[in-house]
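Annex B. Sample input.
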Amino acid sequence: MDQTAATSTAPSPRAVATPASPRLLVLSAFRFPHGDAMSNRLLQLARSAAPAGGTALVVNDWPDDGSRPDPAPVLPPEVQLLTLTSRAHGRLLRWLRRQTRPVRVLRALRRAGVRRGEVSCVYIPLNLFNLATWATLRAVLRVPVLVDVLERHDPGQFPRGRLTPYFLRHRWSSLLAGRLASRVVAVSETLGAHYARRGRPVLVVPPQVDCAQFTSPAPPPLASGLRILYAGSPGLKDLLAVVLQGLARLPAPERQRVQLVVAGVSRVDAPRSSDLDAGLLDTDSVAFLGRVPRERVLAELRRSHFSVLVRPDAGYAHAGFPSKVPESLAAGCPVLLNHTSDLAGYVSDGREGIVLDGPTAEDVRRGLHRALQLDDSQWRRMSQAALARARDFDYRAWTPIVRTFISGVVDASNAPGRSAFASGSSSPNRRSAG
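Annex B, continued. Sample output.
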């Protein structure tokens, strides 16, 4: 049985149903608003996309994973929330729950008093986009459907390759978005070009942050050791094993000065959920925190000299954009990484971070060696550059262009940093003046 809980800054259905105000309808099925990277993506995009004088209404179908939503989440005034909760035991019931999501969303809107004419656009992440959702919402609401695309998986990421059901669903959703979406928001220029070639109006928006959410960096003096943070779930995307191999290649005196903190996976689970060999874990230089709340990750960033991210030279790495990079920059924590995706436009070697020559253990060793040569004044200059660069990711900087794009007006002249915009163009890439 579905239950609908309406939550906002004043958690009641009547609070959601303010009359005659334009709304962007955002579909979600995550631990919104602060549960994971996708939730943060939705929250910040909703803030920048909320119509002037209106709001973004997020209808979140809470995942049936044993967790429970916060009964009174703290939300910015431009974002309102309706949370759908239900228990679906068994694979068949969970499948039915997914298939009926658009109907349940419409029913929740009706119960909250939201009239059809109040919705100006529907925003859907690619992994929630399917033919039934598109057809139902278009037929009932009669507004544009905008799809947000964050990744393009490769067959090699999965044990069964192209036969993996998740991969097939992903590619099918990508195909539908290229044919049916009114507009596409893409996280990288690679994805933006892909959908522009298919005739979709495209806006490239990297992962956004709220810079005001971060406190000043306060790592220990470098003389006491170099503190490095990896935050996330490596899976088959991030080369965490390469980072540990690079650390192991340092001479013993240098290796003893480095502390690598891994937040997101435990020491026991790491070999099962990533490319890590258990033999690499027998070291005092690495501390595993396991799964920790977002607040703890932000606190660890504040105490670290660098965050680290190594990805292979592969299609999925160039199509995506790691959200951990903008968050690290916003925390004033420079990044030790190799260039994939659009990262070369945001992180310069010796300025916002240390750029590795490639994704190998030897590249990591050389990068760590360079980091160990820094003094506190040199690090502070890098930290200040990281903070300055983070403003290119702040949702406030993106508000004018995102609102313009969602309203259907083709103009990307005010986009910060790097952005791609196209309307049926085969070459959408554009370097902004910002």
